[in-house]
Design a protein that fits this description.
Strand content: 25-35%
Protein name: Trafficking protein particle complex subunit 11 domain-containing protein
InterPro entries: Gryzun (IPR012880), TPC11 (IPR021773)
Oligomer: single chain
CATH topology of the largest domain: Rossmann fold
CATH class of the largest domain: Alpha Beta
Largest sheet: 8 strands, mixed
Helix content: 25-40%
Number of strands: 53
Distance between the termini: 130 Å
Pfam family, one: Gryzun
Organism: Hortaea werneckii (Black yeast)
CATH architecture of the largest domain: 3-Layer(aba) Sandwich
Number of domains: 6
Length: 1217
């Protein structure tokens, strides 16, 4: 935008004069209007407010100045409706420009002749109708008109005065006089500038009540509007109060400023409606030249657009500017009616450019981003058509200069608009979130979202437009180079006819003349094209880098360097190319097609700039490319360097394969995936030449291979006198033992084009570790130069095969692993054999474990060993492991010396484990050979123990009849003296089905029930078990275990239930007859009633009649109450009985009764029993016993043998067959 007059492109802001707060020189940023004899001068005599509060007030007012803010509606903080202003602090005396031009002087009339009357209508000093105007008689606009409204005609004057108390009445009267003087001068000036007055006082009205009277007097004397014309500012202590006062003041005065520019708009609209034509006399005086009606329409459309910008109504301004462009380019417009060689045509074209710039700016302001791009593209196409039809065409340097300027203007407008989406991150290195948030282009606005928009019609960030300007400038330079030498000479040395011919052959619109565009010779060697390209490339790179588009930034830098090379500016081009070359890579997608041109250009610039290091490095890389200068030559690299860089000093440089190419590739593969300390492992190093040298041989001076264990192997070049055809492809080099940290060997390292050389050698390692190739380095050089090229592990050539020589030919041998750059070095393998004897597949809870460890020395000599045992795994229960040795301590035992091929045994004891689990322990044997006591060897044996429960039991429990007589209710004391426990005895039975879960066959030697715990005041006696003999129990087999016990309370009157906790104790051994193991199985806690009545049934055979059976029912009442029961014996088809069928019994407390029934079985062939060894018959008598009071039926229990209870059928009695 710098090519256009500054007032044309300046953003319009309401101009506000601040009078009385001091004048700031930096605020006078525009050239004043030409001095006019007429005009209005405002002069006041009041003192200037210069105290600290006034300066703070001025600073707050200047914060609302929008001259340096972004060109968008959100640049000014505060309410949405607030405007931006151009604040201009001025002195007490200032001038306003004249509104009308001075009348033309009248010529004196001759005697006797009458003077025709002259037209006396006056116009603006900048109107095409005023003879003194710079655009008289047929111009449209002048930058001075924009300057007048931007800097000389304010919309508002805010005057600041100090008011005082009674003692300063004269000063207060002076304030009244100055206010009236300002109002009178503004009224005479003809402008509708508003005036507002701010009265400053160092005292408040509360402190000085007389101030209110003075202010009222000033208001009456000046007739100022109390709402918008006169303001009072009391003393304020904080800056926040002053800022609030300023915002309130500007919010109140904003409508006045908007109304000022709205009045100007109305005035321009009225003049446009009148047609704007001058009088006939005026036309005659101008010699027939006058501004056309189309020109007047353009003038007033521009005026209305500018005044709309002052009001910041950008949509309205955009419509007026668009109408002005259409009027200029219409068939009657100046661009179509004026000749293209005239100054009027150039001025109209410049004005059209400015209006189009303002159209784009307005659209960016209101957020029409895609519309702004479309307007930019359309105007460019319209201008191109205009220049093709009426100008010099679009093949001149002038057109490309305009095209570059138009693209740069778009970038500058976007940059000044500061669109939020285009603002880069403040972080030095943007994160992934920041890169996603930064937009490179904006989507179409909602109004155009449904239309088909081309990608280039979407608004891109400024860097895109600077690239377009760069490309147009490159084309401009190409056209400038085509200028003939005759036109490039200075006009002082050229005939006038030739100079006149230049103006008809070249388009110089906003462009230099041919002798200035590309002078002959260049003045001081300066090329302004390169300066423009440098500036545009720098701005584009800055925009691309700020948005993380580093590759685009590098691309434009590379293009700039290419232009510098064309202009033979090699040193400056090299400064740009070296950073690109150092950070570029041929594998990068950006440089995939550009790396060779970049390398070739860097090499050429280094050669011309005498940068020997860069020249050597690039020459080394260029050996990898076909078509380079080296590939076309038969010279060796040494001869080429000496010819191109004749330097007396030795050239030295270092490169890395991560960034730069090498004509020699290195690969190294280990022949084994694993090896051991002290053993040799084969390695194969391959050198592959990718050199493009023709017949020349590439000689590598030295190859270094560094490993991660700190070792380095070097292969030095040794010339081989044999011919290349007789030279073997695979060379075997000496072995390198593990004791050497640096080793060097010699071999022939000369390489022909596309030749591969293989070198075999063996390495030994001293420590166990994973050894990898750290890097490999190629050294090339002689007495003239030295080059070192380093390959990291990631840049080495990978190969999953090694080559073996077979009958003079190299054959591929594929390795069965992928990582051939590493070898795992294992510790020296121990030859000590460890065997665990006595280990079973499964162990059981409560079993003590004893194992025997045997150590067999398989080494070549005797050893001295120490064994350590420790628990492993994640088990919660710890293992108690001991060595069966007297000198064992903390799990460690000294084995001592073991001779060659001898063995040593040691026993391990593990205490019984109480819970089932999977346990494991390891035995670590550390030993050393007698000849190498400082070299420790280790052997580990891990043993797992599966611990499980050997048995599980299912229990059945029931009462039995206790045959001892109960104590008498009427003679308790006598009975109580005979026994210690006075409670009633209760007999119980506990049956268990013992099942084996063991994998092995176990021998059960005994199974007893023991008492673990009983409730208070309870006695429990367990009868001796009848389990006899040894029973072999296999897996899932079951054996019954029966036991009885008797309980009684200590006191007869204790009615609380009894709680008994029992355990089943099983003593067993393994089948082999090992040590006996005791296993306890807990019995679920038993809740035994003590005071509840119960019915027990027993059976006896009748001695008098063997066909009868005596059935006895025992009714027990252990309570302290009399109980009455109703008994009913139900008849059955299976037997007959003798006894009462229905009966009622009353039982005294603490007593027991027995009822006898004789049964005779009808048919002994039915219901033959199969559950008892007596093989008897089972009958099912039904006896109902009901408590008469509670109506509760008592269950009949089995009281002894030959009686059982079934859950479904009830009580069963066995009758002998």
């Amino acid at each position: 935008m710098e090519a256009y007059p500054a007032p044309y492109v300046q953003h319009e802001l309401p101009l506000v004069y601040l009078s009385g707060l001091g004048e700031q020189e930096d605020s006078l940023d525009a050239a004043p209007l030409p001095r006019q004899e007429s005009g209005s001068k405002v002069t006041t005599s009041s003192e200037t407010c210069t105290d600290e509060r006034a300066q703070q007030l001025l600073r707050e007012l200047m914060k609302h100045d929008g001259s340096s803010r972004a060109w968008n509606s959100e640049a000014l903080p505060g309410p949405t409706a607030s405007l931006k202003y151009r604040m201009k602090p001025i002195s007490r005396t200032f001038n306003l420009p004249p509104r009308k031009a001075a009348p033309l002087p009248q010529a004196p009339s001759e005697e006797g002749k009458s003077t025709p009357p002259r037209h006396t209508e006056l116009h603006s000093t900048l109107s095409p109708l005023s003879p003194g105007s710079p655009i008289y008689p047929e111009g449209i606009m002048t930058p001075l008109w924009f300057t007048k409204h931007q800097h000389s005609v304010p919309s508002l004057v805010i005057a600041f005065f100090k008011v005082h108390g009674n003692d300063n009445a004269a000063r207060n009267e002076q304030v009244q006089t100055d206010i009236n003087a300002i109002r009178a001068t503004l009224g005479r000036s003809g402008y509708k500038t508003r005036l507002s007055v701010v009265l400053l006082s160092d005292r408040s009205i509360l402190d000085a009540p007389e101030l209110e009277e003075h202010i009222s007097a000033i208001r009456r004397a000046t007739t100022m509007d109390p709402k918008t014309g006169l303001f009072f500012m009391p003393p304020m202590s904080s800056s926040a109060e002053i800022a609030t006062f300023v915002r309130s003041l500007l919010s109140t005065l904003q409508p006045l400023m908007v109304e000022h520019y709205r009045d100007l708009t109305k005035h321009a609209r009225r003049k446009k409606a009148r047609g704007g034509s001058a009088s006939l006399a005026s036309s005659v005086e101008r010699g027939g030249r006058s501004l056309s009606a189309s020109g007047w329409n353009v003038r007033y459309e521009i005026k209305q657009g500018v005044f709309a910008e002052f009001r910041q109504e950008m949509d309205v301004a955009e419509r007026h500017y668009s109408a002005a462009i259409e009027e200029l380019c219409s068939s009657e417009g100046l661009l179509e009616t004026q000749p293209s060689w005239s100054s009027v045509w150039n001025n109209a074209r410049l004005l059209c450019d400015v209006v189009a710039l303002r159209v784009v700016r307005c659209q960016l302001w209101v957020g029409q981003t895609t519309g702004a791009v479309i307007s930019w593209v359309n105007y460019k196409a319209r201008t191109k058509d205009l220049v093709d039809r009426r100008g010099m065409g679009c093949g001149t340097y002038g057109w490309f200069a305009w095209e570059a300027r138009w693209a740069e203007i778009m970038g500058q407008l976007i940059r000044r608009a500061s669109l939020p989406a285009f603002q880069p991150s403040d972080e030095a290195v943007p994160t992934s979130v920041d890169l996603n948030a930064i937009c490179t282009h904006l989507p179409p606005e909602k109004a155009l979202a449904t239309e088909r928009i081309a990608p280039f019609e979407q608004l891109h960030h400024p860097g895109y437009w600077f690239v377009l300007a760069f490309e147009a400038t490159v084309a401009r330079r190409v056209k400038a180079l085509d200028i003939s030498e005759e036109d490039r000479t200075s006009p002082d040395q050229t005939p006038a006819s030739a100079v006149a011919q230049r103006s008809r052959n070249y388009d110089t619109y906003l462009a230099p003349f041919p002798h200035e565009e590309f002078p002959l010779p260049l003045k001081g060697g300066h090329d302004h094209h390169l300066s423009i390209l440098d500036r545009l490339a720098g701005e584009a790179s800055q925009e691309f880098d700020a948005r993380g588009q580093h590759r685009s930034a590098k691309r434009i830098t590379f293009e700039l360097a290419q232009e510098l090379i064309k202009a033979t500016r090699y040193s400056k081009a090299l400064d740009l190319l070296v950073p690109l070359w150092e950070h570029a890579s041929s594998g990068d997608s950006l440089w995939s097609n550009l790396y060779y041109p970049l390398l070739q250009a860097t090499h050429e610039c280094a050669s011309h700039a005498s940068n020997s290091e860069v020249f050597l490095s690039t020459a080394w890389e260029l050996l990898s490319f076909e078509g380079s200068q080296q590939s076309q030559s038969t010279k060796s690299l040494t001869d080429y360097i000496r010819d191109q860089v004749p330097s007396q000093e030795k050239i030295a440089t270092k490169t890395n394969a991560s960034r730069h190419l090498s004509p020699v590739q290195i690969s190294l593969a280990f022949a084994e995936k694993e090896t051991h300390v002290g053993e040799l492992v084969g390695c194969q190093l391959s050198l592959c030449s990718r050199s493009t040298l023709g017949a020349a041989t590439l000689i590598v001076s030295q190859v270094d291979v560094a490993f991660t264990d700190g070792r380095t192997v070097s292969i030095l070049h040794e010339n081989d006198t044999s011919s290349a055809s007789a030279r073997p492809m695979i060379s075997n080099l000496p072995s390198i033992p593990g004791s050497e940290s640096f080793a060097s060997m010699k071999a022939d390292l000369s390489l022909l084009r596309s030749e591969t050389r293989l070198f075999n050698f063996f390495l030994g390692f001293r420590e166990a570790n994973v050894v990898r190739i750290r890097d490999a380095t190629i050294h090339v050089g002689n007495d003239a130069f030295y080059l070192q090229h380093t390959f990291d592990e990631d840049n080495l050539m990978r190969s999953r095969a090694i080559h073996v020589e077979n009958q003079g030919q190299a054959e591929h041998y594929m390795l069965p692993w992928s990582d051939t750059f590493s070898v795992t070095v294992l510790p020296k393998p121990p030859k000590l054999q460890m065997t665990m004897h006595g280990l079973h597949k499964q162990y059981y809870v409560d079993e003590r474990i004893s194992l025997e460890l045997e150590l067999m020395n398989g080494e070549e000599e005797s050893i001295s060993a120490t064994a350590t045992v420790r628990q492993t795994g994640k088990s919660d229960s710890p293992l108690s492991i001991q060595w069966n040795e007297q000198d064992a301590l903390s799990g460690e035992v000294a084995i001592g010396k073991v001779e060659r091929d001898a063995s040593h045994k040691v026993t391990i004891n593990i205490d019984a484990i109480l819970e089932p689990a999977m346990q494991s322990f390891e035995i670590e044997v550390r030993y050393s050979l007698t000849s190498e006591p400082d070299t420790p060897l280790m052997k580990v044996l891990v043993t797992e123990l599966n611990i499980s429960r050997p048995f599980e039991a299912k229990y059945n429990f029931g009462p039995l009849l206790h045959t001892a007589p109960w104590p008498s209710y009427f003679n308790l004391s006598a009975q109580g003296e005979e026994v210690k426990a006075e409670g009633l005895p209760h007999r119980w039975r506990l049956g268990a089905d013992l099942k084996s879960n063991a994998e092995d066959e176990l021998s059960i030697r005994s199974a007893d029930v023991i008492v673990d715990q009983v409730s208070d005041s309870t006695v429990c006696d367990v009868a001796e078990s009848n389990f006899a003999g040894i029973h072999a129990l296999r897996r899932n087999e079951t054996i019954p275990v029966e036991s009885e016990f008797v309980t009684r309370k200590a006191a007869l009157d204790d009615r609380r239930p009894m709680e008994v906790e029992l355990s089943l104790v099983i003593r067993w051994t393994r089948k082999e007859g090992t040590a006996e193991t005791t296993t306890r199985l807990p019995v679920p806690r038993l809740q035994l009633p003590n005071a509840e009545p119960r019915v027990l049934c027993t059976v006896e055979d009748d001695a008098s009649d063997e066909d009868q059976v005596l059935l006895q029912y025992h009714l027990e009442n252990p309570s302290s109450h009399f109980l009455t029961f109703a008994l009913t014996m139900e008849a059955s088809d299976a037997f007959a009985f003798s006894g009462a069928k229905y009966r009622a019994l009353s039982i005294a407390p603490l007593s027991r009764l027995r009822l006898d029934y004789r049964l005779v079985v009808h048919d002994r062939d039915e219901d033959r029993g199969h559950e008892d060894q007596d093989n008897g018959l089972w009958v099912w008598p039904v006896m109902q016993v009901v408590d008469s009071y509670y109506q509760k039926t008592l269950r009949v229990h089995s009281g002894g043998r030959r009686v059982r209870v079934d859950e479904k059928r009830g009580l069963a009695v066995q009758v002998k067959a």
